[in-house]
Amino acid sequence: MSVTVAVARPQNKVPGTLALGLSRIGYETRLYFRSPDTLLFTFFFPFIMLGIFTAAFSSSGNIGANPDGTGGVSVGTYYLPGMLAAGMLLSGVQNLAVDIAGEKSDGTLKRLGGTPLSPLSYFLGKIGQVFVTAILQAGLLLLVARLVLDIALPTEPEKWATFAWVFVFGVITSAFLGIALSAVPRSGRSATAVVAPVVLVLQFISGVYLQFTTLPEWMQNLASIFPLKWMAQGMRSVFLPESFAAAEQSGTWDLPWVAGALGIWLVLGLVLSRVTFRWIRRDA
């Protein structure tokens, strides 16, 4: 008489983890668009700032124009790259840092920690939401720039290839840094007060609102430590004429340095987000 012994095989958890993460992208995206505060201060903020700068400074003529007034680019064209970079930072860092801190504070993460949802699935849902909203934001911003503000967009395929990799690197990096930064606020109530000033200061010193080379050298060097400066520089290489590269800190677009800096911050953000993430605060 033969006996058949059933041997239990280890289950592959990756498909389940991936499926859970992908299923959360739609859920997280719906929550994002149901929050008026989030929409105003992350999604529509670059639109508002681009409109303000274009309306306020267009009367002074083109930026980088010749002495006779010819050449240069319009104010809207000059500020568009910075607004795209700021949108990436807001969608990732500010949005996720405030959102996750709030979920820790109200007990949402504690409840999720008692479910089969793994941190990886949770990360996939959050990062996927950032990607979806960042793509929508960038697409609408370019549409508004072209149709409403009459800003000329690049036609060269290589320019759009650069846009694509700077955008992908920037969004992923911002998302990981947002997850990591969410560990800093002590509560959901204090999250905006902690995160928003950091994001705002980075925008001012990174060439988003001010011409980068007009800043003091020490401030330029400080900004070069952080990813937003490189995101804005990469976007300027896409939307501004080659002659504007001379106005950068090194006199060139330095795209290899842009890729290297964003790559370093992406890895650092990944490590920090995984090390600092907890379903509940350690001091809770």
TrEMBL record:
Superkingdom as given in the UniProt entry: Bacteria
Compartment(s) of residence: Cell membrane; Membrane
Sorted UniProt keywords: Antibiotic resistance, Cell membrane, Membrane, Transmembrane, Transmembrane helix, Transport
Start and end residues of each ABC transmembrane type-2 domain: 37-283
Name of one Pfam family that matches: ABC2_membrane
Transmembrane segments: 39-58, 78-102, 123-148, 160-184, 191-212, 257-277
GO biological process: response to antibiotic
UniProt GO cellular component terms: ATP-binding cassette (ABC) transporter complex
Membrane topology summary: Multi-pass membrane protein
Family stated for the protein in its record: Belongs to the ABC-2 integral membrane protein family.
Name by which UniProt lists this protein: Transport permease protein
UniProt lineage: Bacteria, Bacillati, Actinomycetota, Actinomycetes, Micrococcales
